[in-house]
Every structure is written in C-alpha cells, then in structure tokens.
Amino acid sequence: MIYFQTKPDAVFEAILKEAFASEASEIQLLSDDGAIDSWEGLYPETSQRLCPYEAVRVLVQLSAAVNDSRVYRLTDLHWLVLYEALRNFCATHNDLLDDFDQHTRPVGDYKIGEVDGEALVTIYFWDTDFLFCNRKETWAGQTSNSRQCADIEESSSEQDAAIIALEPVDELGWIVREPLFQSGSTRYPDFGEG
Fold first, then answer.
1. How large is the average pLDDT for residues 145-150?
2. Which of 12, 65, 107, 191 has the fewest CB atoms within 10 Å of its CB?
C-alpha cells in the first residue's frame, strides 16, 4: 500500500491498479513505436527526468506497492510518475464514458462514471512539491538531464539501481474520511452533493 495523506479506500485502490497497468502499457507502446513526442506530451514532467523504460519500471514498483499489505513512503520521483499516470488515466477514463451504457466504466470490481483527478490529488496527495522540484531541475543534487535515457543497453541491475527503492512506513498518520463512493454512486469521489 502507498502512504497517502488519506487512507485509500477500495475504489481508489482499484483506480490505481488500473491506472498503473494501463499507463505502463501505453508508455511501452509509445516507446516501442519510437513516438517520443507523444511520450513527452503525455508525461511532460516525468519525461524531463526519466526515459519511457524507466517510467514503466517506476509504475511496476508503484503497482507492487499498491498490492502489498505493507505501507510504503514514496520519493518525489515516484509521486511525479503517480501524479501524471493518474491524471492521464482519469482523462482517458472520462473521455471513454460516452461509449458505455449509463456512462460508467468497469474499474476493478466497480462501475465508475466521472473520476475527478484534481479532487483525488487534493484528497490523497500530501502536496505537489514534487512538481516544483522537477521544474527547478533539482532532484537530490542532480539536474533533470543528468541521466542519458538513450542508452537502453544498461544491464537490468544498473537500471534498477537508478530507480530508488520505496521505504516501508511503520507509524501511520492517515486521515480517515467518510466513504467517497457509496452504493449508487456514479462518480468518484462522490461527496453526495446531488
């Protein structure tokens, strides 16, 4: 599990799982096709720090964390990839709603209508300082272009070493909210405002 500001509910976890899987597939397709402009367009912040293959590895790490019973603290780099993956997933999900009956799509075990990505950031993210770090090109003393992404022939262990491991969290300080998705909800989060 990822250590968010607010304890994730089952619906948000389902959204994360689908977002990580679908975005990793999308990035892989873009990189295999050599569509670097599309990669940079979909991931304008992440593409300043990582090549597509590294971003996929971060998404795999995030996916493993969501599926683990232990709770992990993310680095700014992980938050950045999570932020853009979630933003892209929400946009795609919402764009596809017209193609589905009752304007809901299956996400995990749920049928969800509109997903408000901005509300998810407000509810679950501690802050968005990671965006400021990326724009200022200051990541632990490295400038954003200090790693060369064109050299894909690194060994697997060298690539894995470039992506920082997630840190387990022992003491949790979750915000626990009322459920954000009720029986009959068609949007997420649903604040019950009509």
1. 44
2. 191
